[in-house]
Design goal:
By secondary structure, this protein is α+β, with helices and mostly antiparallel strands. 43% of the residues lie in helices and 19% in strands. The protein has helices spanning 2-18, 22-33, 38-44, 51-90, 109-123, 137-140, 173-181, 221-236, 289-294, 311-319, 326-329, 332-337; strands at residues 127-128, 134-136, 165-167, 186-195, 206-216, 242-249, 252-261, 278-287, 303-309. Bound molecules: 3,4-dihydroxyphenylalanine (DAH). Residues 170, 172, 211, 249, 252, 283-285, 306-308 line the site of 3,4-dihydroxyphenylalanine.
Length: 339
């Protein structure tokens, strides 16, 4: 029995040393320590060993088992480490490889133009306000001196939701909301989306305007034109030329239309400006005293002026974009060219 145990240790430890993968190692474990394993059998047969030898043989058998177990554990550790190292080698990432570069986003051209315009106005002391796109007929039209059935309503083909609720067709609604709530003197500018039932290469049912309104004592057309000239310079450069034409809006009196050097041809004359070198940029005017009064401002003390550019057209012209729809499609192939 002692010899048998001695043999088991020698052969077993050698076998374990020679095992070169985890599967083989497990087979060896089963061979000696499994339910029907050689060592298990011997330990189980202890009861047949003569009583006087039992202690000695038993102690030896335990030592043998410990040796085998120890050899197995150590080898398991070695093989597992080797496997881990091999796996890591397979998955190695070469951190010295050149990267594919980080793709940077950019602001949408409309946002950029809008920000530029806002920055200019804020630097001139304007407060930026925002207001509802779903609006009542009163704020969009009536309080701006455009009563129901007034022919001027035809200038803006409006989306009505009910008889009295509509998608605002102009940011001028914010003139009224501010005049009702703010105490003069004040200067506000309101960027935002507006809606009209209009669609072709240069018109979209959704587009962007913004509204500027100044209410103060003793201000008029001269101040309006000086301010607009300054804004145009800051927007398009010192050399920009400005042209003023008479116009009509029910909420301003007098009303004017401002043209500036065509940004497509820089004033040389092109198909867009029909050879004139100028393109229309926005409507403006001195606030009609009736409009001031309707919103509770004393028109004998205060006067005002306002202007309301659409920004999509300017973005199209300065970036040579042929169709306004490009501004809303979010096609990355287009947007990447606008960076
Ligand atoms: N709201 C006008 C439009 O959409 C533009 C406009 C004209 C705004 C004159 C003004 C203004 O504030 O004074 O056609």
């Amino acid at each position: 029995m002692k010899e048998k145990l001695q043999q088991i240790v020698e052969i077993g430890v050698n076998e374990i040393a020679a095992a070169d993968d985890l599967k083989k190692l497990d087979e060896i474990r089963v061979k000696y320590l499994g339910k029907a394993g050689e060592l298990t059998q011997i330990l189980r047969g202890m009861k047949d060993v003569p009583a006087e030898d039992r202690r000695e043989v038993g102690a030896l058998a335990n030592t043998v088992r410990e040796s085998i177990e120890k050899a197995l554990t150590e080898k398991l550790c070695v093989l597992e480490n080797a496997k881990l190292a091999a796996d890591m080698e397979k998955e190695r990432v070469d951190i010295t490889e050149p990267s594919q570069g980080v793709k940077k986003g950019a602001l949408h051209p409309l946002t950029r133009f809008n920000n530029k315009f806002m920055d200019i106005c804020v630097a001139m002391g304007f407060t930026v306000v925002q207001g509802p796109e779903v609006e009542t007929d009163y704020y969009n039209f009536e309080a701006l001196n455009v009563p129901k059935n007034h022919p001027a309503r035809d200038m803006q083909d409006t989306f009505f939701i009910t008889d009295n609720i509509l998608l605002r067709s102009q940011t001028s609604n914010m003139q009224v909301r501010c005049m009702e709530t703010m105490k003069p003197p004040f200067k506000i500018v309101c960027p935002g989306r507006v809606y009209r039932n209009d669609s072709d290469s240069s018109h979209s049912p959704i587009f962007n305007q913004f509204e500027a309104l100044v209410v103060d004592e003793n201000i008029g057309l001269k101040d309006l034109m000086l301010m607009i000239k300054e804004i145009l310079k800051r927007l398009f450069g010192e050399d920009v030329k400005m042209r003023v034409r008479p116009s009509y809006f029910p909420f301003t009196e007098p009303s004017i239309e401002i043209d500036a050097t065509c940004q497509m041809c820089q004033g040389k004359g092109c198909s867009l400006c029909k050879g004139s070198g100028f393109s229309e940029v926005f409507g403006a005017g001195v606030v009609n005293p009736k409009v001031l009064e309707m919103s509770g401002i004393d028109s004998t003390k205060y006067s005002g002026f306002a202007f309301g550019p659409g920004i999509d057209r300017s973005v199209m012209v300065t970036n040579k974009i042929p169709n306004i729809k490009y501004l809303f499609r979010n096609d990355l192939r287009f947007l990447k060219q606008m960076r």
